[in-house]
Model the fold of this input.
Amino acid sequence: MQTAQITDLYEAAFLVLSGCTLERVSCIPISRTISCRFDFSGEKIAELLEQVRSRTAVVNLSSFRSCYSQVNSYVHEAKKSFEREQRKEKSGGEA
Done:
């Protein structure tokens, strides 16, 4: 079983489409913006990422679009949750 941490939404969508498991989405504050990191596990992750990076990956466009939308919704949910936690911390932990 291989693991990978990536920040690229297209790579994340390709890994989901290829059957890898998205274990976690974490928010990373970068300057004034928030980026997300995806933690994956699965078989042949390194090989799959090499296909993307060498531009040899081939996908069904409709299936890829669906996976991209799924990953993008995880990003939006993670960012909303992160921002709620940040506001909670700034207000002294009150709900």
Remarks:
- The chain has a mean pLDDT of 93.
